[in-house]
Write a structure and sequence with these properties.
Low-confidence stretches: none
Distance between the termini: 41 Å
Number of strands: 7
Structural class: alpha+beta
Mean pLDDT: 93
Strand content: over 45%
Number of helices: 1
Number of domains: 2
Helix content: 10-25%
Radius of gyration: 21 Å
Strand order of the largest sheet: 1-2-3
Length: 108
Amino acid sequence: RGTTGLKTGFTNAAGFCLSASAERDGTKFISVILGSKSNNTRFSESARLLDFAFSNWESAKIEKKGQEAGTVKVKKGVTGNIPVSYADNAVVVVKKGSRDKISETLEI
């Protein structure tokens, strides 16, 4: 469900392989299956991996665009410090139910 792309492959050495991507409710995941014993198994294992990911993880949007993140010291400049702002919002993948535990650290 929600498949956005896939690539299959097979060699005797590598077995049946599959890279697949899917998107549900704005969250995207990729699964990679290597060395599967059969064509059907690679697809069923990929579906299991993607279902597991979508059942246990979610995207969390961090609204920061335009907000000041801190300041940077300027040596020998016209001003001693300049403000640094977020250029865009961020999206992180977190375990479902743990959005409130997100913390941030800024290193400039």
